[in-house]
Amino acid sequence: MQTFSPRPEHVQWGFYDARQPPIGEVQSGETFRLQSTSGLVWDPEPGRYLSAEAVAIHRQVTDKGPGAHILTGPISVVGATPGDVLQIDVLDVRLRSPFGYSNLDPLKGIYTRRVEHPTRWMIPIDLESGRIEVLPGVWADSAPFFGNIGVAPPPGFGRIGSAEPRVHGGNIDLKELGRGTSLFLPVHVAGALLSIGDGHGLQGDGEVSLSAVETPLEGEFRVTVRRDLSTVYPLVVTPTHFITLAFHEDLDEAARLALGSMLEVLERECDLPFNDGLRMASFCVDLHITQLVNIQKGVHAMISRSILQQLPSLPICLRQPPR
Question: Please, which residues bridge with residue 93 across strands?
Answer without folding.
Answer: 219
